[in-house]
Design a protein that fits this description.
- This protein has helices spanning about 5-10, 25-35, 45-50, 65-75, 110-115, 135-150; strands spanning about 40, 55-60, 95-100, 120, 125-130.
- By secondary structure, the protein is mostly helical.
- It binds zinc ion.
Length: about 150
């Protein structure tokens, strides 16, 4: 349910585990054992976590910008993507820069011609570059920052 937010948080460098199909009890257990903050839109689950002394955030907000602004306010993290600490939105591993030559044939020809900087996920092999979608990413973060400033 929070898949989109999860990808955003990973891009921002946070270590976020996806626990889609797990039971509430299992979720609570993992959050406790691994010292994670449970992010949920399920009020009942949120209350259970709090009652058990597990850190949890009840996620509210109409869109990703709003959700990110609320989380950034609460936990005090910057709403900037720093590719040195970014994690793969797909699998949570930390991405790393990769030589342009190494992505030849792995990305569309036009992308290869146009871009010089690439990143690779060492776990799932996904290759990233600051393509056209980067503008939308920046816009969402700008919106989130504005919301944060407005309180
Ligand atoms: Zn990956």
């Amino acid at each position: 349910m929070l898949g989109k937010l999860l990808r955003w948080l990973r891009m921002l460098g946070h270590n976020v585990k996806y626990a889609g199909a797990l039971s509430d009890n299992k979720l609570l257990k993992i959050a406790k054992i691994e010292h994670r903050i449970l992010l949920t839109r399920d009020l009942e689950l949120y209350q259970q976590a709090i009652a058990k002394g597990i850190k949890a955030a009840y996620i509210e907000g109409a869109d990703e910008a709003e959700k990110l602004a609320k989380l950034a306010k609460r936990y005090g993290f910057p709403l900037e993507i720093n590719l040195k600490i970014s994690r793969c939105p797909k699998c949570n591993a930390r991405i790393r820069p990769i030589e342009k030559e190494a992505v030849k044939g792995k990305v569309p020809e036009s992308t290869y011609r146009y871009y010089d900087e690439f990143w690779e996920c060492p776990k799932c092999g996904q290759i990233y570059w600051q393509g056209a979608h980067w503008k939308r990413i920046s816009e969402t973060l700008e919106k989130a920052k504005k919301l944060l400033e407005e309180g």
